[in-house]
Amino acid sequence: MRQQRRLGHDQAEQLRLPSFDRPVFIVSAPRAGSTLLFETLAQFPTVWTIGQESHDIEHDVAELHPATYHYASNRLTAAEATPAIYTAMQHWFSQRLQNRAGLLYQSASAEEQPAAIRFLEKTPKNALRIPFLKAIFPDARFIFLYREPPQNISSLLEGWRSRRFIAYRHMPGWPYTEWSFLLIPDWEALIDRPLVEIAARQWEVANTTIIHDLEMLDPAEWCFVHYNDLIQQPQQTVRQIGQFAGWPSDDQIEQRLAQALPITHLTLSAPSADKWRQHEAEITPILASLEPVISRVNDRGMSQSVNHKAF
Fold first, then answer.
1. Residue 291: CB atoms within 10 Å
2. Which pTM value belongs to this model?
3. Residue 259: strand, helix, or coil
4. Is residue 187 part of a domain?
5. What percent of the chain lies above the pLDDT cut of 70?
């Protein structure tokens, strides 16, 4: 973390900037398992990441912060993808790039620095930023990670109540102290609504926006991964993702996949298939309203499923 502090202006001017070759972005609703997927995929030998989520970029690149747009939402489109923002993002990521061994790109020798890097990034806010990311990185690829609403919404509720995932404090127009997770369009309509409705709306908007935006792309540019497949068939699922992304494998990643995937540092309580039932009384009444989204994602996602596509 200390190595990744912002560089001064003069140092930033001297950065060695790599070419981003087919960068891969994981897009999902918050608490859909994206951290587990990210930490697993980061073990591929040619993959470079910043070692964590890129939440801080919106504090350093003001145009990415919702305050610039009067806290409308985390939505960004191609209209915001200016050359200046592209340059700022390229510098920001390049400062923090590291390989799976933790070697910083800027500290590596010339022999250790590929001219073109295979970059992996994940931040739940990217669920609302696919057109923006595609405009910034025209050859970008996307992994749509989907988790069924009972489990996903339950995890969102747990996260809100833990106060560990606060995204914004003292947000104008929000009568409470904090807002957690994804800032969705028309969040003002959720004032005075039960927390379960806020969590459900975050799940709905994230998945609806993802599937809509991905349908605008060439099918070869994205794949669909079901959370259950990641948990139950990690070896097959991750291998297929590697084929989709064009990442070579090696013994280290194969050894990791030969055993159960580890629990991530963001897990709040022990995983369990039925854990969501602690919130069942809150969640069940709203599930019927989510059926159109569930059907649309499942129907479209099946044709793009990483475990059914031939790469």
1. 10
2. 0.91
3. coil
4. yes
5. 91
